[in-house]
From TrEMBL:
Its cofactor is Mn(2+); Fe(2+). Belongs to the mannonate dehydratase family. Keywords: Iron, Lyase, Manganese. Pathway: Carbohydrate metabolism; pentose and glucuronate interconversion. Its EC number is 4.2.1.8. Catalyzes the dehydration of D-mannonate. GO terms for molecular function: mannonate dehydratase activity. This is mannonate dehydratase. InterPro entries: Man_deHydtase, Xyl_isomerase-like_sf. Pfam families: UxuA.
């Protein structure tokens, strides 16, 4: 198993690459969508939270990720000894009508095909995605981790309607007519996801790119009045069963799975890694379940992280684990220290589990 490091778009620079290497990472998971683009000032501390208007503005619908820019970042990372394992998340600007079943759906499927082919040509093996109308919303921050370290969490259900022009917690059309998105049923959402896989899986297979599904974060039954796709561990199976290809895989977020109200986390780790569908792992810990949970340091939450590593090893998982995000520590560099603590713990844990006989 390999230690990876997740970096947001605005962190893709030499200093952050050096920092990841210093933390012991060999791999990177890169966010190419800039969640903070229009709202950097409201979201200090490099943890996207947002409010009713989301993380901010989506990108340029006409500007697809180019071979040149992705190759450049891949090369720069390589010059620091880091391999890019995955790009995490599509830009709502490129696929809002795939999520919403809107008039631009077919055009946007073509965009996603182009992006997948480009990522494959660059030689990045995985794209993580989150098939969600509300996206990652409704989280708060507070001094809830050990020693009062600031961490994200949830206190109550969050069902404020989503205004038109917004999806996946980002605004893709600032000039949308007033009003809110119509609520759909869970079946409609599954149908949309099924179509997404039907259209894109052949392209992903040909391009040599794995599409890895993130569970719903936070995994409440609804969020902003919209259904969730994978808000219980067994629902991952439904997504997998839609396509037998191992390119149809999971961005396996332990924190989110532990926040779910049903099922047993260790069984889920065993089940999905045994099926060889875990593309990469978000290795973070939490206390509680939706709608009342908070993130913790990697060694203090509800999850026995060493047990998870032993199961993964037992099932032959050899992929990348990243801390995703971590509580921020009280010092001059809160984000850096939180991530460094998580990586140090993970490095030692991996060493000890890999050496187990
Ligand atoms: O939670 C976050 O802030 C992100 O770092 C991701 O873990 C996010 O949940 C996934 O990329 C799904 O969009």
């Amino acid at each position: 198993m390999k230690l990876g490091f997740g970096l947001y778009r605005h962190q893709l620079d030499a200093d952050h690459f050096r920092f990841a290497t210093q933390c012991g990472a060999s791999h990177l998971v890169v966010h190419w969508v800039d969640y903070f683009r229009s709202s950097r000032d409201n979201q200090p501390g490099d943890q996207p939270i947002g409010n009713d208007s989301g993380w901010g503005l989506a990108g340029d619908p006409d500007k697809l990720w180019s071979f040149e820019e992705l190759s450049a970042v891949k090369e720069e990372a390589a010059s620091h000894g880091l391999q890019i394992e995955a790009i995490e998340n599509f830009d709502p600007a490129h696929w809002h009508d795939v999520l919403l079943d809107g008039p631009k759906k077919l055009e946007q499927f073509e965009k996603l095909k182009t992006i997948i082919r480009t990522v494959g040509r660059v030689g990045i093996p995985t794209i993580g995605y989150n098939f969600s109308i509300a996206g990652v919303a409704g989280r708060i921050k507070g001094p809830t981790a050990r020693g009062g370290a600031e961490a994200v969490g949830m206190e109550n259900p969050y069902d404020t309607p989503i205004p038109n022009g917004m999806v996946w917690n980002m605004v893709y059309d600032r000039h949308a007519p007033p009003g809110n998105l119509l609520t759909i049923t869970p079946e409609e959402l599954w149908q949309r996801h099924g179509e997404f896989l039907d259209v894109l899986m052949p392209v992903a297979e040909e391009a040599g790119v794995t599409l890895a599904l993130h569970p719903d974060d936070p995994p409440t039954p609804t969020l902003r009045g919209q259904p969730r796709l994978v808000n219980q561990p067994h629902l991952y199976q439904r997504a997998i069963d839609r396509h037998s290809s191992t390119r149809n895989a999971l961005e396996f977020c332990l924190g989110t799975l532990a926040e779910m109200t049903d099922g047993d986390l260790y069984e889920a780790v065993d089940n999905y890694s045994r099926q060889n569908r875990v593309a990469y792992v978000h290795f973070r810990n939490v206390r509680g379940k939706v709608p009342h949970y908070c993130e913790t340091f990697v060694d203090e939450g509800d999850i026995d992280m060493l047990r998870v590593l032993r199961i993964l090893k037992g099932n032959g998982f050899e992929g990348v684990l990243i801390p995703d995000h971590a509580p921020q520590m009280t010092c001059a560099a809160p984000w850096h220290s939180g991530m460094a603590f998580a990586c140090g713990w993970m490095k030692a844990a991996l060493q000890s589990v890999e050496n187990d006989r």
